[in-house]
Structure formats: structure tokens, C-alpha cells
Amino acid sequence: MQQTADILVVDDEQVILDAVKKICTAEAFRVTCTAEAHEAERMLEGEIFLVMLCDIMMPQMDGFQLLEVARRRAPMMPVVMMTGFSTVENAVRSLRDGAIDFVPKPFTSDELVSAVRRAARLRSHREDIQSSPAGRGDTSLLVVPCPPKYVRLGYASWVSLQEGGTALIGVSHLFTRVIDSAGSIELQDPNSEVVQGTACAQVRTTDGLSHPVLAPVSGRIVETNSGIATSVSSIEKDPYFSGWLYRVIPSDVDYEVPQLTPCSSGDLY
Amino acid sequence: MRFFQHIGFKLILVVGLVAILIISIFAYFNIQSLRTNLQAEVERHANQLSETVKYSTRLDMLENQRDRIHQAINEIGRQQSIGKIRVLNKTGQIIYSSVENDIGTFVDKNAESCYACHSADRPLERLAITERTRVFQVHPDSSRMLGIINPIYNEQACWSAPCHVHPQQQTVLGVLDVTLPLNEVDKTIRSSRLEMLWFALSSVLALSIIIGLFVQRWVATPVAGLLKATQQVADGNMNHRIHSERKDQLGKLARSFDNMTDKLSEARLQLFQSDKLASLGRLAAGVAHEINNPLTGVLTYSSFLLKRTAHQPEMQEDLKVIVRETLRSREIVKSLLDFARQSVPKKSEADLHEIIERSIAVVQNQLTLRQVELVKNFDAGLPRMTLDANQIQQVFINLIVNGIDAMGNKPGRITIGSSQLRLSLVGMAQVKKAACPKRHSLIDQNMRIEGLASVRVKMRVASEEGFLYIDPLYGRRRDQTSFPVAAGVLRQLSCTECAASLHEPDVVCPLCGAPAFAVEVPTQGKREACTRQGCDWQRWEAMDTGGLREYAEVTVSDTGCGIPAEDLPRIFEPFFSTKGQKGTGLGLSVIWGIIDNHNGTIKVESEVQRGTTFRIRLPIQQPR
Q1: What is the residue range of B462's domain?
Q2: Of A49, B160, B446, B584, which one is least surrounded by beta carbons within 10 A?
Q3: Which residue does chain B place closest to A164, by CA atoms?
Q4: pLDDT band at A78 (very low <50, low <70, confident <90, very high)
Q5: CATH topology of domain A143-264
Q6: How many Cβ atoms are within 10 Å of B134's Cβ, its own excluded?
């Protein structure tokens, strides 16, 4: 097994492959493209990629099947799903099935770059964790997992059901490590709606990129955390408690929460 | 159509035959009685004649004046209406006759004039009056004759007469035989018969014509209309109507047919519209997906170029436009997808009045501009409710805008009222989710009972296996089975997927004692019913004990142009619009969908030129 490229892009549309290749190459990534899911499957067998970008709707084999193959053959490799059929169901399913991100088409080059950067950083983070067992290596590399009673969407956002029917939404410690150096956060107004699997906030980092936070549940925002609007560093310092983003009234807990991963599952990102 | 199959022909045939039969029977008896009467008349005449001859010749007989007797008989017999007058003696010799040649000849005792007395071996001595007459025909060609014999009895004057021709012992001295031709009678009967025949023929003809005309007018024409209509409808022309004004059964049939076509075309339209909406959704989703790929090409390249040309401000401006407009396209496609998806309501607790106020705020400008007064009749005691504030706001904005549009250019008034009411759940509660003990869903979207998805369970009766479709509306009992089951038969019911039995071992039907079965309604307990076909028992504890449910009722009334009665049943259909180019026809159908998703109902009452009222009922507590 050898690494011939950093990123494997799988999409049945040539224009997407070209665009992704161009943008990622400009970011100094080596890119391999294929329009065939089966070819991607073969490539995963013999080669190592840092990150895979994968379309969902493809002939022969859909993105979810390829995701499953990738999870089995290259568990370390973060997979980013991208689709023109950007439904909530597709987004939530992608993250539940082990993709680390979901980028709805059409996307801008910045959106793509930020997703790829996060994926690459998550990859190196995973490698770091593997190579330095807890207690012996650099503990600062280790992340604080979300509290057991929380549930999370992918690795990035969590929700905690509160007494009185509200729920708190926030980002994970790993997310803050992956985006690195949050500069500011753009929150939605209170009283507006958030929808599960779609962006509910944008975290701007000092490198000029903008990172979307995908809402883990749908609901109406009743309160935003005024603390983080002024001092964004609190989401890095205490992401699970004082660093929450929104207090929402969830609209369909019964349906949405079972789609999420309990933090107590022990299944680390 | 072949002539013989024509209903008019059949009717004429039957009526004609009946008429002929009746007239024939009537004619038969009529002619029979005519014949009897005429014959009796001739007979009476013959009898009189016979007596006249007898008495007019009596004296001559006694005096034995044969010439005079002969002359008298000749004179009388010359009359045209008299056939023959003969006098026979005891030996059968004709002694007098109006026909000269007969005189002196003997009559055979077997001849027709002798039957009456000589049919028995011994000659009769007395003959009853009725037995004296006879009708006979000499030749088959000749006319019939009526003969009357008048025995000349021996009397004292005869044997004491000076001629002493007759001894005293003799009883009958001879016979006066008068025959009269019956040709007059027969002629009358013949002409009467002919008359009857004409009568029969002309009445049958007249009947046929009358029946033919009426059948044509009352049966054939409307039937042809119906036939044409059925063919038109069969060919797919749902707009064809018969418009019959008739009051009879065929008129009723025609109206019923029109009604059926109305319903059929409505149902077809509804099916067509919902199909259209569904395909529009699929189309939108498909287009969105297809268009997102090229849009990605444009957006990635343009945004990439924008970044790469930061040092070329003149290009930056143009590229920014491309990026901005592509992002706009992205939003359009997203909203198209949102429409296609008919999003699930995101319910949370909210104040209904606040939502209405927000809706009013959105359309306030339009209200002022169009001089529409808005009156609020709110029930201040209305509690907070669980609903999707955005969707409900959309409902009220739509209804108010509809109200404003209905005013035309005239000033008017829109009244929004709210109140609280309690309605029984029985007949309102619908099973929207149902599961077997192993949590397999039993809802069948394909088999709908009155438009609502049914609950499908596997049913076994004896060796036959099929499905029972349970009416999802609690309190209404329109269950259906996939094969006919006789009432009273016990059914084995199980899950369609895992075959787990749905029977409740501890529960028996209180009505008939049969075992009960149940389906699980998630979070709302069990809905039980009887396994016996035809038994109406059902129980849903959560609904029964829930008693009355609290509803908020909001009415939105306008003083606008109203909705014609024929449009009322269709206004909630997708794409039904009375606004022409102004509307898409989706507004009210979206409203209906939103209210339905909130387990509520929406009804409309309207009077043309008076206004329209929409009545919305929403449960205050959403079932969890």
C-alpha cells in the first residue's frame, strides 16, 4: 500500500471532478479522480488516501455503499459526502453511517476548501491519536469526548435534552480542534428555526475559512449563548457546558434523536 | 340495432297480441250471442208461422177441403222468407207442400225432419217445443235452414168428423213441417264478423302507432341520449351531461347518470391533481438534483476564479455577479426542493393569537391599501398550543390574502375570531401509526378507506388467507377484507410481516364473547376490536377515557365575492384556482395539508356576494 494522492474524489459528473481537482490542487493537495464507484473501490484496496470526497447519487453503486466499503478498508480515512440531492435524510444518514461531513451541492470553492481542510486535519488527528496512546503521548492531542448523556451528529455537533422540554446545541471539542483557532462565530437569531443536518452557525477561523455547524436536531431557537458571541474562545475551552450555542425547543425529538449517536457509545470519531 | 330487438317492436308485438286475443274472445261471445238471438227470433217466427198455418188450415182439415189447404199452404209458402211448408201424414207421405213436386213423395224416417221423433226406435207421441226445431244444411254449399215440426194431434173433432178419415186411437195424425232459410241470419253474422275483424285490425294498428310514438318519445329518445352519454364518458369525455328535464324513471336515471359523471370526473380530477402534485414533486426533486451538478461547476469555478483574481478588480466585479447570481439560483433550487418535500411540521408550543397577529402584520400594508377593515374577535382564554408557528402563520397569511382578493376593489371587512371548544374524540381520532407487538408498521398507504391510509393485518379464516383493512378513524367502522368473509365468522389476525398474533389472550369481546385483538398505536395505547366478522365492538382506551379533546377554533370571514357552491368541494384541491393568472392554485391545498398535519380540520362556508368563512379547528394538545 502506498500513498499516491491525498484526496480521492468520486463523482459521476466530470465537471465536478475537474472543479474539485482544480481547487484542491491549488490548495497543494494531490488529487485522484474517478467517475466510477467500482474503480474507487479498487483504488481503496491498493492505495492510501488521506481523504475521500464522495457523491451520493451515482450509477452502479451509490455513495452510501462506497462509504461502507471505505469505512471497512480505510477506517482512518475521513469521508466527506457531497450531493445535489441534499435532503435532511441524506445528510443525517451520511453522518450516522460514518461520513465526517456533508457538503450540499452546489458549493463554492471556499466551502469545499474548508470541508477538505477539516477532513485533512481530522485525518492527522486520528493518526496522532493512534500513534500516541493516551497517557504516554502528548495529552493535548487528545480530545475531551462529549458527556455520556449527550447525543451527537457526526463528530462535530451535540445536543443535550434539558428538563422543561428545551435542548442545548453545541459543537464538540474535536470540532474546535479540527477547525483550529476560531476567530468569530455567526449565529442565527433567536426565534428562527434550525433544521437537523443543515448549517445552523458558521465559525470563522483565523485562516479566513468559514466552517458550518450542522444542527443535530430541528427546532426553534429560544436563546443564543451571549457568552460565545463576545468571546468565541469559550467554545474551545468548555464546549460542552458554557460553550453551548443555542437553546432550542426541539420539534420532533422522538424521530430525530434516534438518528443520532449517543456520546456514551464509546465509538470515537 | 336490429328491428326485432327494438323495445318498441316488442311492446307493439305484445300489446297487439293481447289486443287481438281480447278482441277475439269478445267477438266470439258477441257473435255467439248474436247468432243465438237471431236464431231465436227466426225460431219464434217459424213457430208462429207454423201455428198460424196449423190454425188457418184447421177448419179445412176438418172439412177435408184439400184444395183450400193446398192453396193456403202454397200462398203462404210463396213468401220469400219462407223455405217450405209441408204436411206429412203418419206414414211419412207428403200430402201438402208449398213445393209442388214433393207432394205424394215419402220422407225417409231418417231424413232430417224426422229426427226429433224418430231418433229412438219407437216414435214419440209428444214433443217438447224446444225439440221441435232443427238447423240443417241440405248441401254443404246451400244456406242453412231452420226447420220446425209441428205435430198435428188427433182430437175429438177429427175422429168425429164426417169424413172419418182418422180413427180415434191415433195420437198423432201428421206433422206440419215449416222450414225457413237462415241466410239472413248468416249474412248478418258474417257482416258482423267482418266488422269485428276490421275493428280488431284497426285497433291493433292504432295501438301500434300510439305505442310506437310514445315509445319513441318516452323511451327510445331518452335511452338514445343515455346511450350516447355512456359512450361519451367511456371515450373519456367527462364533460358530457344529459341535462334531462323529465320527471319519470328515465329522467331520474339520466340525472343519476349526470351525478355519477360529476362524481367520477371530480374523483378523476382529484386523482389527477394529486398525481400531478406528486409528479411535480418528483420532477422538482429530479430537476434540482440535475441542475445542482452544473450549478456546482459554475459556482466552484467562478468562486475559485474570484479568489485567484484578487489583484484584478475589473474582473472581480463581474465574477462577484456570477457568484452572487449562482448563489441565488442555489436558493431557488433549495426552495423548490422544500416545496416538493412538503416538510413535516416542526411543532413547538406557541400562542395562536400571537401567530395570527404576526400574520396580520405581514399583510397590514395590503389591508390598508385595499381599504379592508380587520376585526379581531379573540377568545382571551385560549391556551398556548403545540404547533408549527411558521406553517400556521403561512395558513393565516394565505387566508387573509385570499379574503382581500375576494373583495375585488371594494372596501370590505375581514373578521378573525377564535374560540375554544371540546369535541369528542370518537369519530375524530385517526390511527396514523400502528404496529404489531414486534413493532412492524401496519399502516398501508395504498389501501385507503375514505381517503385515509388503512391499518392492514393478515387475516386467516379456515384455510383462506388474506388481509383485513381496519378503518383508521376510530368510531367509524368501515373495515374491509381482501376476500369475502361471512358475518359471525372468527378471524385469525396476525402481523403482515412477522406473523405475530395480534390476539389479546386476556380480553374477550363484551358484545359477543369472541376473542379480541389489538394493534399498538405508538404512544396512544392499544386499539382493540373483536375478531368476529361483523361484530362492531372496538375500544381505544386512550380515546375513550380521553373524553373530549380541547380544540381551538379560528374563523376567518370576509365580505367578499364568495365562492359558487359548485366550486366549494374543489377549492382544497391542488391547482384549483379561481384567480386565473394571479394564483397557482396551490395555496389552499397547502393550507389543507398543514392543518391536516396538525391533526386539525378546515371547513369552508360561503355565499356568493355575501362572503366566505373558513373554519379551522386545531387540537390544543398534539398527540405525542
Answers
A1: 443-545
A2: B446
A3: B349
A4: very high
A5: OB fold (Dihydrolipoamide Acetyltransferase, E2P) (2.40.50)
A6: 17
Q: What is the ipTM of this complex?
A: 0.87
SS3 B280: helix
pLDDT tens track for B425-442: 666 677 888 888 888 888
Instruction: Tell me whether residue B497 is in a domain.
Output: yes
Q: Quick one: B109 and B3 in the same domain? A: no
Statement: the pTM of the whole predicted model exceeds 0.90: no
CB contacts of A106 in chain B (<8 Å) are: 292-293, 295-296, 298-300, 326, 329-330
The per-residue pLDDT for range A39-75, each reduced to its tens digit, is 999 999 888 999 999 998 888 888 999 999 999 998 8
- Whether residue B109 is found in the same domain as residue B119: yes
pLDDT above 70 coverage of chain A, percent: 94
Domain containing residue B164: CATH number: 3.30.450.20
Helix (H, G, I), strand (E, B) or coil at A80: strand
Asked if B326 lies within 8 A of A87 by C-beta distance, the reply is no
- Chain A interface includes B286 (CB < 8 A): no
- Chains A, B: CB contacts within 8 A come to 94
Q: Looking at the complex, does the CB of residue A16 fall below 8 Å from at least one CB of chain B?
A: yes
Q: Please give the C-alpha separations between residue B113 and each of A237, B46, B88, B135, in angstroms, as whole numbers.
A: 154, 14, 10, 10
Pairing assessment for the beta strands B611-619 and B601-607 based on DSSP bridges:
antiparallel
pLDDT tens readout for residues B195-205: 888 988 898 89
B512 and B467 co-located in one domain:
yes
Q: Is the minimum CB–CB distance between A85 and chain B shorter than 8 Å?
A: yes
User: Is B296 close to A13, i.e. CB distance below 8 A?
Assistant: yes
SS3 A207: coil
Residues of A in contact with B294 (CB under 8 A): 15
| B493 touching chain A per CB within 8 A | no
Which CATH number, 3.40.50.2300, 3.50.50.60, 3.30.1780.10, 3.40.50.300, labels domain A7-131?
A: 3.40.50.2300
Both B357 and B449 in one domain: the answer is no
- Residues on chain B touching A165 (C-beta within 8 angstroms): 349
- What type of residue sits at position B376? K
Q: Which residues of B touch A92 (CB under 8 A)?
A: none
Write b or e for each residue in B565-602: b if 16 or more Cβ atoms lie within 10 A of its Cβ, otherwise e: eeeeebbbbbbbbbeeeebebbbbbbbbbbbebbbbbb
